Amino acid sequence: MKRTLILFGILMVILLGFFLFSKTKNAALGFVVTSPEAAEILCAIGAEGRIVAVTAECDYPPSLQQLPKVGSFSQISIEEVLGYNPKLVFATVPTQQAFIHDLAKLGVQTETVYMRTFDDLLRTIDRFGTLSDLESDASALSARLRTTIEQYTLAPDYRPWVYVEIGDHFWTASDNTFLGDMIRHAGGRVLFHDLPNDYGKASQEEVAARNPDVIFVTYPGVSTSDVRSRRGWQDITACKENRIITLEDIDADIVNRATPRSVDALRVLGELLHKVPVHDVE
Amino acid sequence: MTSSSHKTIHFLLLVLIAFAIIAVYLWFDTADSAAVMNFRLPRLLLAFVAGFVLAGVGSTYQALLNNPLAEPYILGTSAGAALGSTIGIIMNLWWLVPVFGFIGALASMAIVWFLARGSGLLDKNRLLLSGIVTGMFFSALISLLMYLNQQKLGSIINILLGNLEPVFTASEWYFFLGVSGISLLLMLYLFMQANHLTALTSGDLIATSLGLDVRKIRIRLYIVCSILTGIVVSYAGIIGFVGLIVPHMTRMLFGVNQRRNMITASFLGAILLILCDFIAKHVGKIIYSGVAIEIPVGVITSFFGAPFFLWIMSRSSKN
């Protein structure tokens, strides 16, 4: 009996200690950013100071890597996120939809991005400006980008058909994607513009039948000669004329993320599609 | 009319249907002979070899393990091959994916053999359990790799759901022709061993009393079947249904003789898989009005195969 009482007493002391020393909730101020695109945009409008935690893939600007991590792009710890008591969580849909759903159930404010066009990008920049009380900086950036995009946008007579390969076994993108919009602005046409969904699987037979002028591979591990040595691809115009763009020509991150840096990808793509330098802006 | 001439007519009819399916597969909706040679012929060959091997190995395993639920994937080889291919995909070594797959198949085969060895006769239950457990272990590793590499999910799913569209360079194409030739030779070997299998189905003791070295036969057949399954999964991914159901179909249609069952199952498997791949390739065009979107062939094999099997089952029970 005595022993039980002593044990009980010790337990109570430990519990009391937990309550005394447990962290009090921080005031909800900071942003938790799980989307690399959103992180880049926030930093570009000068809101980097508001970000309290990111995911492992948020690597641009490089200073973001110093911040604590709440997981990776596809595995986010809800508990870690809640630990920061964020004012707002920035995520990419549809990839992080389940995570957003869970956060909403817990009453956390979220902001999602899914950009299909350069116009979407400019709108997102403006909205992020409003959300982080940096409206003027954001609208200055979006105005500057708008001018740059206009200057890099090409409307040539010759508009090559571009086959985009975003994954092995002929995963490709339609018109209705950021990549598709980039190709349009760079003066090209998307070979599989008519896919029923944003992304889909084509077949090499269909690629050969549609006969692209340019092939654009946006995933790592595939070189120009890999594409040209595919059996039966020798007759495709892009292979005959060796007009194959790979990640050796354009940095993967500026192609696959919709961020202010995407205009650089647009310029490089325009130059590669039309073999002329696209003049730089001041 | 005698029953044997009936059978001959049936047989000739089936051969005709098979050739018709192959012809339609090759020349449907195209006038471009280069496309037929470059894209459809390799795909046809892969579908043929995959269906031929899976149904034949399924038939062999059902007899070897004396278990109606046995199929080419039950002894873990496919999981090993899929794991190898997955590792190749994650390392971005696209052109080595089939090689990685085959190495994975050999690794899982070695592990299963080591586990099942034990003493005595190479007990079939021991082999079965070792295979299933090894397969589960490799599947867990695949799930882990998928979880950690979600940006590669699409490519890994191609392996897990099956994909009959090969991307070959000229030299890879000749290599594949060689591999296909070797597969068909190994299938011939399995066919020659079919009579021993008939003896095995009556039990290890009876088979031994007939003068068969049960242990040796089981090990040999297991190795040959594993190599065949490994080759198919390395190139085509895991295509379900064919290896399990086609041998039962042919057993219902043509009787239980193992030798005949293996050869008919192989040919029926090949033709069925070609037919399913044809549907997988063209059905998207109908659904999406003209846009070439393909459905994974593994989906089609089960979607159309299951009702077809039920139809045959109801027919054979009436007889």
Features of the shown structure:
heterodimer, A: 282 residues, alpha/beta, four-stranded parallel beta sheet, elongated, B: 319 residues, mainly alpha, 13 helices, 78% helix
Instruction: Provide the structure class of chain A.
Output: alpha/beta
Count of individual helical segments of chain B? 13
Low-confidence stretches of chain A: none
Q: Encode the helix/strand succession of chain B as letters.
A: HHHHHHHHHHHHH
Multimeric status of the protein: heterodimer
What general outline of chain B do the C-alpha atoms trace?
globular
Proportion of residues in extended strands of chain A = 5-15%
User: Roughly how many Å apart are the termini of chain B?
Assistant: 19 Å
State Rg of chain A.
24 Å
Q: Overall mean pLDDT score of chain A?
A: 89
Characterization of this structure:
The complex is a heterodimer of chains A (282) and B (319). In chain A, α5 (118-131) runs antiparallel to α6 and α6 packs parallel to α12 (262-274). Chain A is elongated and about 90 Å long. Chain A has 282 residues and is α/β, with parallel strands linked by helices. Helices cover 42% and strands 12% of the residues of chain A. In chain A, the strands form three sheets. A four-stranded parallel β-sheet of chain A has the order 2-1-3-4, with helices on both faces. A four-stranded parallel β-sheet of chain A has the order 7-5-9-10. A two-stranded antiparallel sheet of chain A has the order 6-8. With 319 residues, chain B is an all-alpha fold. In chain B, 78% of the residues lie in helices and 0% in strands. Chain B is built from 13 helices and no strands. Chain B has helices at 3-27, 33-64, 77-90, 97-117, 124-148, 153-161, 170-192, 194-200, 204-209, 214-236, 242-254, 258-287, 297-318. In chain B, α1 packs across α2 and α2 (33-64) packs antiparallel against α10 (214-236). The longest helix of chain B has 32 residues, at 33-64. Chain B starts with a helix and ends with a helix. The model of chain B has no long low-confidence stretch (mean pLDDT 86). The A-B interface holds A 73-75, 167-171, 192, 194-196, 200-206, 208-209, 220-222, 226, 229-232, 235 and B 30, 32, 34-35, 37-40, 42, 89, 92-95, 147, 150-151, 154-155, 158, 163, 165, 167-170, 172-173, 281, 288, 290-294.
